[in-house]
C-alpha cells in the first residue's frame, strides 16, 4: 500500500457518477530520491497503484487489477510541481468485476488516463 507513504488523501467528493479523490504527494518519500535524483518524477507504476488503491477504498473491499486496457501518460507528474493531484474515477460493476476509468489531474490539466478492469 502506498497510502500514507507516497501519498495522503486530502478529500473525497462524489459528483453524479464520478468519485474525485484529492491527494497530496509526499515529496520526501524515498522513492523520489531514486526516481530521479535532483529531478523527481512520480513513477507510472505508482500512479497505477494509487488509482487501484483509491478504487479499492471506494468499493470497500480488496481488489486486484485483472486487466489494464489502456494507460496514457500525457504529462510528467512531479511531487514538487504537482504536489496535489485529483483522481477522477468512474466505476461500473458487472459480474463481480469493475470497469474503472481514471483521469489524473493537477490544476485542471489532465496528466494521465487509466482504463482498467478490477476483480
Describe this structure in words.
With 119 residues, the chain is α+β, with helices and mostly antiparallel strands. It has a single domain, classed as Roll (Thiol Ester Dehydrase, Chain A), CATH 3.10.129. It is 18% helix and 48% strand. It has helices at 30-34, 44-59; strands at 7-15, 18-25, 65-73, 84-94, 97-106, 109-118. It has a six-stranded antiparallel beta sheet, with helices on one face. A hairpin with a 2-residue loop joins β5 and β6.
Order of strands, widest sheet: 1-2-4-5-6-3
- Counting DSSP H or I runs of 4 or more residues, the number of helices is 2
The beta-strand count equals: 6
Poorly predicted sequence stretches spanning 5 or more consecutive residues: none
Q: What portion of the residues fall into strands of 2 or more residues?
A: over 45%
Distance between the termini: 17 Å
- What count of domains describes the coordinates? 1
Largest sheet: 6 strands, antiparallel
- The average pLDDT is 97
CATH class: Alpha Beta
CATH superfamily: Hotdog Thioesterase
What is the CATH topology?
Thiol Ester Dehydrase, Chain A
Give the second-level CATH assignment, the architecture. Answer: Roll
The best one-word shape is globular
**Which percent range fits the helix content?**
10-25%
Write a compact overview of the structure shown.
The chain has two helices and six strands; from the N terminus they run ββααββββ. It is of the alpha+beta class and 119 residues long.
Amino acid at each position: 500500500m502506498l497510502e500514507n507513504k507516497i501519498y495522503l488523501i486530502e478529500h473525497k467528493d462524489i459528483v453524479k457518477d464520478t468519485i474525485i479523490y484529492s491527494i497530496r504527494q509526499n515529496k520526501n518519500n524515498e522513492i523520489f530520491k531514486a526516481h530521479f535524483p535532483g529531478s523527481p518524477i512520480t513513477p507510472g507504476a505508482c500512479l497505477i497503484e494509487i488509482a487501484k488503491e483509491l478504487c479499492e477504498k471506494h468499493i470497500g473491499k480488496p481488489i486486484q487489477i485483472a486487466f489494464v486496457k489502456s494507460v496514457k501518460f500525457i504529462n510528467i507528474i512531479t511531487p514538487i510541481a504537482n504536489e496535489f493531484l485529483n483522481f477522477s474515477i468512474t466505476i461500473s460493476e458487472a459480474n463481480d468485476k469493475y470497469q474503472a476509468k481514471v483521469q489524473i489531474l493537477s490544476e485542471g490539466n489532465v496528466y494521465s488516463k487509466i482504463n482498467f478492469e478490477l476483480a
